[in-house]
Amino acid sequence: MENMHKKIKGKELLLDILFDIAGSILYAIGIYTFAKTADFAPGGLSGLALIMNHLWGLPIGITNLALNIPLVILSFKLVGKRFLIKTARTMIFCTLFLDVIFPNTPLYTGSPFMAALYSGVCIGAGMALFYMRGSSSGGTDFLTVSIKTLRPHLSLGAVTMAIDLLIILLGWPVFGNVDAVLYGLASAFVTSVVIDKIMYGMGAGKLIFIITTKAHEVSARIDEISGRGSTIVKAIGSYTKEEKQIILCACSQSQAYSVRSVAHEIDEDAFVMVMETSEVFGEGFIDTRNKEKEGEIS
Description:
- The chain contains eleven helices and four strands.
- By secondary structure, it is of the alpha+beta class.
- A hairpin with a 6-residue loop joins strand 2 and strand 3 (243-251).
- Helix 1 crosses helix 3, helix 2 runs parallel beside helix 6 and helix 5 runs antiparallel to helix 6 (156-169).
């Protein structure tokens, strides 16, 4: 049992490091390769560090690391020791790539708008990789995760976007034109979308509510054409007082149209509601049983 525990710990540490390296490379590409030469701040403390680099030539990675100290102190109780240790390791990797490796690589000198888009893609992908391993790139991520802890229903991407907006606006007087703000906003928006798509999009799907008087026929047909099970709930219409059934069916994006069509094929008067779901856990979707077992062992 002890050997198994050590193996799992070793595997988790290796995955953490691999995700840190991959995420740091993407993060550094977004900040140094794209944002730096296009003269805009992409948001976050890295954006603030980029502004200070533009004004005084300070190294981006080291400056970002120094700016993190007060936020670490403020958020220590909320984020916890484990998160801080992981983030410290991630920040060291980010600093290494930002100040040592990427200054020796070619910079993008094309369209500033394209730089903003690809900066957002790379930063968002890098940050998502950090978040997936319970870490972050530091900076306003400490505040983001703290807010997420206090308000778990909020989207990480939306919280990041709100915090970044304040820093992006500083780019106007520093870089001397409003385009710096527009490019920064574009980058931050793409970052938030990429974060949410990577973290939640892979488990996303549709939840379909079907109100009908032919629930068993509809559910049988849904199973036949899609292989999806469904749940039938008895209901009574508040206006007609008639007894009906509600079918709840979770399905993939590609199956939603077929499921909806089946409902109207069998019952023309069926009332159908299709809703977005950010994550679906269970058989046929994301299986968390193995992860939970690993969590119990570790």
